[in-house]
Automatic annotation (TrEMBL):
It comes from Roseivivax halodurans JCM 10272. Keywords: Hydrolase, Metal-binding, Multifunctional enzyme, NADP, Oxidoreductase, Riboflavin biosynthesis, Zinc. Converts 2,5-diamino-6-(ribosylamino)-4(3h)-pyrimidinone 5'-phosphate into 5-amino-6-(ribosylamino)-2,4(1h,3h)-pyrimidinedione 5'-phosphate. This is Riboflavin biosynthesis protein RibD. NCBIfam families: eubact_ribD, ribD_Cterm.
Length: 367
């Protein structure tokens, strides 16, 4: 393994510490190396500030002069709430910058690399570019398509059910799988559920068991705002953000009630009798979200799949069978032909406690 690959892998691991906490900014990592010795490192702070480069340069101090900076995304070149990172790198005397990919934000888009080269700094690109693309996929999607990247999680019985016929669902999977799900929540900007799940399960949707962290935004898709005001979400909305995406026909008294408990209301257009899924995600993108973790229920999951808006599927399958009378994990998709079904390709599988976790990405098998 070359030194560039080794140090870039380190920088990527640092950047991942910010996943779910830096939106609308990307979660970037930076390592500064002098004579193959790490003299500074950092990652994007909560809320997107300070930037990774700024923190790494502060740690390195005078040792940054003549050193190499490994940054997991092209350094910014525009003046925002803080000066550009390119200016900071130049002022610190960095001699070489290694960054895997260009920033697709129009305010940067190659300008950062150009500014560094114009200052006489050597710029190397392409190192672990695939890994960086995967880490920044949500940020790129919001910049390029206007919506966050969507991961759909389903925890089911062996025969694909999420509850018994009477609605009992706690717990199909074991504690180890639930702990992994909390970790997945922590790495996303927001957790999304449908109104039916909110009513049936009264979830808190918070990350537990991970200490004091910046909690993801909790989002409910509820056309009529028909989620109980005595729910856990309502009772904690002033402490952990709750956003409710609703339709134009939601009752005004429910508007006032949910605003009164501290929720943020986001109006969305309808597609037929349900919220327009693509418009809903665009609204979330406008709010700055880059990564959304959808935990159901079946109707919302089917809507997102039908609209081709699911980028990643994560399944947890338990060794229990609930039978045909159990509640299915997905609502109706209206498919007549197999080729019409959404296709995903398997990228990971493994045992988690007594359950099986399997992860799939959008698109058919390559080759």
């Amino acid at each position: 393994m070359s030194a560039d690959v080794r140090h870039m892998a380190h920088a990527l691991s640092l950047g991942r510490r910010g996943m779910g906490k830096t939106w609308p900014n990307p979660a970037v990592g930076c390592v500064i190396v002098s004579d193959d010795r790490i003299v500074g490192r950092g990652w994007t702070g909560d809320g997107g500030r300070p930037h990774a480069e700024t923190q790494a340069l502060a740690m390195a101090g005078a040792a940054a002069r003549g050193a190499t900076a490994y940054v997991t995304l092209e350094p910014c070149a525009h003046h925002g709430q803080t000066p550009p990172c390119t200016e900071a790198l130049i002022a610190a005397g960095i001699a070489r910058v290694v960054a895997p990919v260009e920033d697709s934000d129009a305010r940067v888009a190659g300008q950062g690399f150009a500014a560094l080269r114009a200052a006489g700094i050597e710029v190397v690109t392409g190192v672990l570019a695939g890994e960086a693309d995967a880490d920044h996929a949500g940020f790129f999607m919001r910049v390029e398509q206007g919506r966050p990247r969507v991961t759909l999680k389903l925890a089911t019985s062996f025969d694909g059910r999420i509850a018994t016929a009477t609605g009992e669902s706690r717990w199909i999977t074991g504690p180890e799988a639930r702990a992994v799900v909390h970790g997945m929540r922590a790495r996303h900007d927001a957790v999304l559920i449908g109104a039916g799940t909110a009513r049936a399960d009264d979830p808190s949707l918070t990350v537990r068991g991970w200490g004091e962290i910046r909690q993801p935004v909790r989002i409910v898709a509820s056309r009529l705002l028909d989620v109980p005001l005595m729910s856990q979400l309502a009772q904690t909305a002033k402490d952990v953000p709750v956003w409710i995406c609703h339709g134009p026909d939601a009752p005004h008294e429910m508007h006032r009630a949910w605003q009164g408990v501290g929720a943020t209301l986001i109006g969305c257009p309808l597609s037929g009798r349900t919220l327009d899924a693509r418009a809903l995600l665009t609204k979330l993108g406008e709010q700055g979200l880059t990564r959304v973790f959808c935990e159901g229920g079946g109707s919302l999951a089917a809507t997102l799949l039908s609209a081709d808006l699911v980028d990643e599927l994560v399944g947890f399958t338990a060794g229990i069978a609930l039978g045909a009378e159990g509640q299915p994990s997905l609502g109706a998709l209206g498919l007549d032909r197999l080729h019409e079904a959404p296709r995903f390709r398997l990228v990971e599988t493994g045992a988690v406690g007594g359950d099986v976790m399997h992860r799939w990405l959008r698109g058919p098998e390559e080759g």
